[in-house]
Amino acid sequence: MKILFEEHIYATSLLENILGERYFRPVDHFRSKPDYVGYYFNSRINEAVFILPKVFVYNKGKAFGLFDPEEIMDCTSETKIKLRIHGKERVIFELPVWLYQAMFRFNKRERDNKISDSESVTNVVTNIDDTVKTELDLVLGMIRFHRENQVLLTQIAKINHSQQHKIHWTKTVSKKNPVFSVDGPVYMDVVSKKKVINYDEELIVIFYSVLNYLKKKYGFRITINEQYDLITKRNFEKLLSRGTKVLKSIKYKYFSDKLLSLWKLLYLFFERSEKIRSGKKIEEVLMIKDFDIIFEDMIDFLIGDSDIPESLKYHKDGKQLDHIYRYGSLIQNDDIYFVGDSKYYREDGRIDSYSIAKQYTYAKNVIQYNIDLFNRKKLEEGIRYRDSLTEGYNITPNFFIRAFVNDDFDFLNDGLREDFQTYQNNFHFENRIFDRDTLSLQGYDINFLFVLSAYISRNESLKSRFKEKVRKKFRDRMIEYFNCRYNFYKITPFDDMESFVTRYFRLLNGKMYRPTGMNESLIVGFLKGEETDTLEMIKVESVCEVLLLM
To answer: Phi and psi of 271, rounded to 5°?
Structure first.
């Protein structure tokens, strides 16, 4: 298995030997770079080639912090030893496998759910569907069989070896002459029970020999059962050219359902091997040109809502939101939509001003969509964007989320961390927190390997827990941010609420807001240090209580 990195520069002559020319583009007369991410099987060299996402390149251009991206990584046993020294033995095989599974899932989700726009779909290139068994599918199938059937494989070995050296006493007594001693007859020549050919064991020996071959080819970790004698290297080379004939000769020899499924798996492997050795061209492709589409889908799958109104996801001005979900507002009693955007960069890439400006536009579109519903009295129950009395607007949470690769290559921890440099504020009037044009933007980094593994995981409870954790963290951190910058007060007027709002509207415009259920009071927010004079005035006509957003 050979590994390349997206958008990194290699000698064109190297790429021509292992990739189809469609999947890389020239930089100059001698160098080119892959502009796809994905899986490509080249039967001419009998190798699977993976182009990994650019997010894995960091440390001043060193891939994984270990390899020069101008070198093509060859995933052999030598590479495995090199990786083990750096404590990253498992990544070299698992990462391409998980990437392959994620891309396959994305392609299926796109077909089933139409998650991508038509332009994005054209960037997915594949000849793989649910019926095709690729080289990697067969490898994974054998690893899975080995993992799930350890008891069966060990039990067969014990049964087959337990009878090898037992004496057949009936035949010994009837056919052999004993030597008589003082202690009675002693049989110097005995008849042993002969071990008949066991086809179950023959199949398993072939299976473990194939596993051993693939282990060396791909560098994955697996323990070969020592109770079975593997086929020698020389004989296995011959088997690669005639394995289907051997398997056909033992197909109907007392196999259980489990072993029959193993037989089918091995038959597909040898059938494929024989085609390649006969010179038949096999090309398998699962590539995507804009990998940010998949990263976006992975994040949305883990944190977004799937039942969002289409007009909230696809805006009238042609913009499309990456992520949007309904969750508890920063102000009590109501829900609101959280608006997010995923960013797929190299580790050292920064979010640019264009992306920031575009994200504010997303939030403003979402606000306007809901205000249109509010004006028509069709806003969803429990969601509140504007209070008609104070004309104050609820705070719209807005965030970026981008990938990084954990130094420990940890698949289990999300590594979610705040990027404080991304915090941005957008406003027309500085001290008006409840104005529709006052928007704040958070930034977060997340471990790409965790996202990748969670995306393909069947563990629904893990996904559910992660979704709630992320949503709560985004809300809590934004609340902390506003509590640090603003002082909030609950104001309860002595007299009529409407008269109070009218009287102080000019002073409190954009600073006051009333959530659902707060009929006798309202909330006022001031930038810290900016409230003294106004607060003294309204204290004369109301009860003012210090309030923290919670």
So the answer is: -60, -45
